[in-house]
Amino acid sequence: MPKPAKKPVGAQPENPARLIVDGAVVANQWNLLSLDEEAEISAASLAPGKVILPLSVWLELRNELQARRGEIGVWLDSDETADLIGDYAGELPLIAAHFPLFTDGRAFTAGRLLRSRYGFTGELRAVGSFMRDQLTYLKRCGFNAFAYQGEQGLEGLLDSLQDFTDSYQSAVDQPLPIYRRRSLAG
Amino acid sequence: MYQYDEQDHKLIRERVAQFRGQTERYLAGELSEEQFLPLRLQNGLYIQRLAPMLRIAVPYGLLNSTQVRRLAHITRKYDKGYAHFTTRQNVQLNWPNLEDVPDILAELAEVEMHAVQTSGNCIRNTTTDQFAGVARDELVDPRPYCELIRQWSTFHPEFAFLPRKFKIAVCGAAEDRAAIRAHDIGVQIVQNRQGETGFQVFVGGGLGRTPIIGVAIRDFLPEVHLLSYLEAIVRVYNQLGRRDNKFKARIKILVKALGAEEFARRVEAEWEQIKDGADELPPEAIEWSKRFFPQPAYKSVNGGHAEAVLRDQAGSDKAFSRWLERNTFPHRIPGYQAVTLSTKPTGIPPGDVTDRQLEAIAYLADEFSFGEVRVTHEQNVVLADVEQERLYELWQAARKHGFATPNIGTLTDMICCPGGDYCSLANAKSIPVAEAIQRKFDDLDYLYDLGDLHLNISGCMNACGHHHIGHIGILGVDKKGEEFYQIQLGGSANEKASLGTVLGPSFSRDQMPDTIGKILDVFVENRQPEELFIDTYNRIGLQPFKERVYAKAS
Fold it and tell me: Which InterPro entries does this UniProt record tie to the protein (chain A) (predicted)?
């Protein structure tokens, strides 16, 4: 194995009051629990309502939380790969992927694999420090929810979802690369 | 040459609009320096020592004369009237204003050009052999594959924020003129025993501060799987490549850390999952891409007669004969030859051309080579399809515009980065070193006697001047604020790629021409008849060079 990459320096994901889901600004109904080494989260101590758990916590409590399945989501840190959720993805209503820095592009791959390989159909939420200018790429990798941190005029960001209206290569939003659409059509 | 359709035009227009918005937000203070950085880099825009620098994409080095004319116009209108051909087969402007860049991109888009992914931590412009499609030693024309890779990698949503920059090169000939083993991925087109086309795939090559020659992780990949295999490699890299240290973030470090076998195993495992998916390249797709690179309308020429005329002309004009010998390249079609226009007369920074020269290139391309131009990774320009009957005429015209220095492949045809004169990363100047060496070795007969000899100069360890893979490599280093130069010997970039070995302590700039002279003396004294520098070096090793260069004056 290569020397493991250190945890990137960057803030833990937060819980903004509003976010973009499916192209509209909506109120945030989920409470994301960040990974705090001091805190011990147990199935019993978990408050009622919709909760997004860190991957490690979710993996541990998954069986105990079966009864609350529809209201338990999970978030991946940037050094956690989609295969750690794997086919469990199909049972989750929400998966969040964390951008500790907007330049850390691992979550793009995580999103794409969750959608195309592991059958995830729920809400795929980008959390952390991603940028408006990455929205179309995120959308193409299967993200349909965008939880910006800090004060943002979210309505003003919606346009960026349409920065590109077509694409060359296949991705989650477009199953066929452009050469297939062109050459095989004509 | 690839022709845009409405979808290409639309995508590039949308990109220009997006970047215009980003630039406006940056200038209005809505985007921080840090946020704007990757956005501008992916649009080719650097902030350099003296001014911004804009790197314009030339996919696999191919341009048409209309595009070259537009480049000339842009250098005049927005810059100081000259441009620079890079070792990545791209074009750079050294003095644009940040505020003008969206307008420059809009002007480029009109002629099917852009600056997409010429920098930043994404998949860069795919490069190839400048003699693609015309070389006699070519198995298969690499350009249709390059174009498919271009489309696959352009705005790839998953790979726009990789750990580091990512470079792919494709070679379709026996001789590797694309330096594929010095790239993150090198693709060598091969055929198996059944005559099917496929690829040998190299990964983990690269220069910079940790130079490594790429290793083959697959000997035969059927062509139908090219894109899915590339996708698997880049996906493994995006997930596992180091992001904590930019100097250890290239794929070569990952390949080295995992070992090539383990890396290949992971790639194969990923590829197994996607190889039969949407990214398959069915024969129709490849045929479609090939249609953009048709054979030009060559005349049917009596090759024997054309060669005889040429021999006569060469016999009666020594200057022409020299140029013919060094600056032209055999062509697979009888009666034709490929021509390299040298951008390296003494005293001009290698790769620099003025707006008028750009216009001259466009004119020469229209007049002599079906309106098409190629940029070489040695920073020269190629007209690939010239009738032998018209070489004499072309030579005279090229001479008039300063392109006929008969030095291609010789010591003075050096690769040289812009160095400390322009680049904010450089530790030392490189252009004056190139010039001093060119001045000292201006005797053509001596240069020809030395034969093919690649001298590469970089102004810092980022190695844009490819010093590791020069037969003689020069690296600018900084010692307590003073510029010094380290010499390496024995590098090569072709199918027998190797990295140079450091000769010993570095030299001041003044010492460089004489030191190179001593190295050449050792070569001349030790060479067997017709032997090339690199072969003599490989036979006798570093020691004799070292002894001569560092000998104490007695």
Answer: UCP030820
pLDDT digits (tens, 9 = 90+) for B253-263: 999 999 999 99
Q: Which residue of A has its CA nearest to B291?
A: A183
Contact A102, A129 (CB under 8 A): yes
* Interface probe with A: pick from B6, B24, B145, B155, most Cβ of A within 10 Å: B155
Residue A87 is encoded by which pair of tokens? 């086919």
* Domain locations along chain A: 18-185
Strands (E), B388-481: 415-416, 455-458, 472-479
**pTM of the entire predicted model:** 0.95
Residue of B22, B155, B238 with shortest CB distance to A167? B155
Residue A37: band (very low, low, confident or very high) from pLDDT cuts 50, 70, 90: low
In our burial notation (b when 16+ CB lie closer than 10 A, e otherwise), range B479-506 reads: eeeebbbbbbbbbbbbeebbbbbebeeb
First to last CA, chain A: 47
CB B255 within 8 Å of CB B269: no
Residue A6 clears pLDDT 70, i.e. is over it: no
> At residue B205, what is the residue type?
G
Give, as one character, the DSSP assignment of residue A70: G
A140 to chain B: which residues are within 8 Å by CB?
Answer: 157
Residue B553, pLDDT score: 63
Residue A55 near residue A84, CB atoms below 8 Å: yes
- The answer to whether A166 contacts B11, with C-beta atoms less than 8 Å apart, is yes
d(CA B489, CA B332): 34
CB count within 10 Å of CB A24 equals 10
pLDDT beyond 60 at A9? no
Task: To the nearest 10°, report the CA torsion of B542, B544, B545, B550.
Answer: 120
Answer left, alpha or beta for residue B249, where phi above 0 means left and psi between -120 and 50 means alpha.
Answer: alpha
Give the dihedral sign, CA B68/B74/B77/B79.
Answer: negative
The CA–CA distances, whole Å, from B486 to A18, B301, B479 equal 58, 50, 11
CA-wise closest residue to B94 among B424, B372, B338: B424
List, in order of start, the domains of chain B with CATH numbers. 6-110 (3.90.480.20), 135-290 (3.30.413.10), 303-400 (3.90.480.20), 415-549 (3.30.413.10)
> Coil, helix or strand for A75?
strand
B445–A contact, CB cutoff 8 A = no
Query: How many Cα atoms are found within 13 Å in the side-chain-facing hemisphere of A40?
Result: 2
Contacts within 8 Å (CB) and 24+ apart, B505-508:
B505/B550, B506/B477, B506/B479, B508/B482, B508/B483, B508/B484
Sheet holding A94-99, edge to edge: A24-27, A18-21, A145-148, A123-128, A94-99, A72-76, A51-54, A31-32
CB burial of B198-218 (b: ≥16 within 10 Å; e: otherwise) equals: bbbbbbbbbbbeebbbbbebb
Asked if the Cβ–Cβ distance from A179 to B285 is below 8 Å, we say yes
In three-state secondary structure terms, B92 is strand
**Contact by Cβ (8 Å): B122, B159:** yes
Q: Which amino acid is at A81?
A: T
C-beta neighbour count of B258 within 10 angstroms: 18
